[in-house]
TrEMBL record:
<dbReference type="InterPro" id="IPR058913">
    <property type="entry name" value="Integrase_dom_put"/>
</dbReference>
<protein>
    <recommendedName>
        <fullName>Integrase core domain-containing protein</fullName>
    </recommendedName>
</protein>
<dbReference type="Pfam" id="PF24764">
    <property type="entry name" value="rva_4"/>
</dbReference>
<feature type="domain" description="Integrase core">
    <location>
        <begin position="150"/>
        <end position="326"/>
    </location>
</feature>
Length: 509
């Protein structure tokens, strides 16, 4: 029996002979780690990676003083009750009607800086939402399988078309092993290969590395990512010549993004869909009306992107609910993604140079392509002027349709607008143009349903197993007793399952 988890966390001991690190130095790191909702002991241990431990020391007691001085207080000190959280819960419930206990704890923490215990949330639900609790308990688990060897073995990408009826298109990139959302973008298109490639390249440029392989459903919109991933891998490893470094999920499900979309549909979408439907049902917005569509895009897309960014940040910094069916590693997605070695996992990231990123971007992306414009440039100038004339009102959930209607009314008074709309309608821009796929390349090997890129598609090699075994020998079993047997032939690495109550990606070595 083996366990690929973290050994018991020991309380950090303060060295009385060393001064504390300056608060100005560690404050940004405290606030960043705080978002992961970690215990004080774990935060103190994490902070050691951000100051010179030969010169400074930080004990638990002093850290708690620092944390409180920054206004970061824990559950006990905030002392919330079902009554004290009722107003906030009533505000959140319409926006997240399907959120359960674990989700509400996360929402209160990340959106309202409120630390609330599980028992308080349970009592609130029993008192004020008993009928919703019965509905949530009726959900059933659905298991689906997905294989990956470690962090950055695979990046899986996918589009989401549920909001196309409103003129909005979504796209995401997921690192399946950690569960980290790499990007989640909203735009007026998700079918143009240049646009989709820009999401990938922007992420690569920020991170400085790529995965072993990328993965997607078949579709010409993904040709740009397939070409770029293949070129970047081959530029940094000539032995990969002749093999495409992208997996086309032709007969298999692209499970990880599907789970991400399922979570978004349950956790994020209901309130926003209701808000969008309100505009259509009220006769304020018709996607077939060009002027209304342009004003809608100009106003709603940036606002919704901010909301999605907050959602992504919350999911990436939230510890998933511990479950006896979940195989380790268990942790905050961002922490697993950034430091796989701390969780007994391998990181297969491939560092790429800025020159190669620039080369691929220049080769495949036309910066002035109209798909990158939120609205046509000249029309956008007029919308901006009208927005300024209105005093640049704040855009929020409760005010966005009011701002939209005011903008629309102001635009209708502009004599230049009909001419601009006519020019736009007569243009022949193709928002969904094609990009040729690299030819003459073979698919990577596929062994035992493994779709990653380790060992040219064959999976973990002996050197990888030696690293994992060495880590296991240096770490004691997880204190909560989550174990997993090693398969004699290591062909299974990740099991994914989804449910209406909680969606997970679990990991087997």
């Amino acid at each position: 029996m083996y366990c690929w988890g973290i050994g018991p966390t020991m309380a950090p001991r303060r060295n009385q002979n060393k001064p504390n690190p300056p608060l100005a130095v560690i404050e940004p790191h405290i606030r960043h780690i705080w978002q992961a909702h970690m215990t004080d002991r774990k935060i103190v241990l994490e902070l050691r990676k951000h100051y010179d431990t030969n010169k400074f020391g930080l004990g638990l007691t002093k850290f708690v003083e620092m944390r409180n001085s920054l206004g970061l207080t824990r559950t006990r000190k905030q002392a919330h009750t079902p009554e004290s959280i009722r107003v906030t819960m009533e505000e959140l419930q319409p926006m997240y009607p399907n959120a359960g206990i674990w989700e509400m704890i996360s929402l209160l923490f990340h959106e309202h800086d409120m630390c609330v215990s599980r028992s308080v949330i349970e009592e609130y639900f029993r008192t004020y939402e008993a009928h919703l609790v019965r509905q949530r308990k009726a959900n059933r688990l659905q298991r689906r399988h997905f294989w990956a060897a470690g962090v950055n073995d695979i990046w899986a990408v996918d589009q989401h078309d549920k909001w196309l009826r409103h003129g909005l298109a979504l796209h995401t990139g997921i690192e399946p092993f950690s569960g980290c959302i790499l990007w989640i973008r909203i735009w007026h298109s998700n079918r143009n290969p240049q646009l989709i490639l820009s999401y990938y390249l922007d992420t690569v440029q920020t991170l400085g590395f790529i995965p072993m392989v990328t993965q997607s459903d078949p579709g010409t919109e993904n040709f740009g990512i397939a070409n770029a991933q293949t070129m970047l891998r081959q530029m940094h490893n000539s032995a990969l010549q002749g093999y495409v470094q992208h997996r086309w999920m032709r007969t298999k499900k692209n499970i990880s993004p599907e789970i991400a979309w399922s979570q978004l549909r349950r956790r994020f979408a209901p309130e926003f869909e209701g808000l969008l439907d309100l505009g259509v049902e009220s006769g304020w917005y018709n996607p077939d009306n060009v002027l209304q569509l342009m004003v809608f895009h100009w106003l709603f897309i940036p606002w919704l992107q901010q909301e999605l960014n907050s959602y992504q940040d919350r999911i990436n910094n939230s510890l998933k609910r511990r479950d006896r069916n979940k195989i380790l590693p268990h942790g905050v997605p961002n922490l697993i993604f950034d430091r796989a070695e701390d969780f007994g996992a391998l990181d297969f990231k491939v560092t790429v140079s800025q020159d190669t990123i620039d080369h691929v971007r220049t080769l495949y992306i036309t910066p002035d392509h109209p798909v990158f414009e939120l609205v046509p440039q000249h029309l956008g100038i007029f919308i901006e002027e009208c927005y300024n004339d209105l005093g640049r009102p704040r855009v929020e959930r409760i005010s966005i349709w009011t701002v939209y209607l005011s903008l629309l009314d102001r635009m209708r008074q502009m004599d230049e607008v009909p001419v601009l709309l006519q020019a736009h309608s007569e243009s022949n821009f193709n928002m969904e143009d094609e990009l040729p796929l690299l030819s003459g390349l073979r698919d990577l090997h596929e062994v035992n349903n493994y779709m990653g890129g380790v060992g040219y598609g064959t999976g973990l090699q002996d050197e990888h197993l030696r690293v994992l075994n060495a880590w296991e020998e240096d770490n004691e079993p997880d204190v909560e007793g989550h174990y997993n047997e090693i398969d004699a032939e290591p062909s299974v690495w990740v099991e994914a399952f989804s449910s209406d109550e909680e969606d997970e990606v679990t990991h087997i070595v």
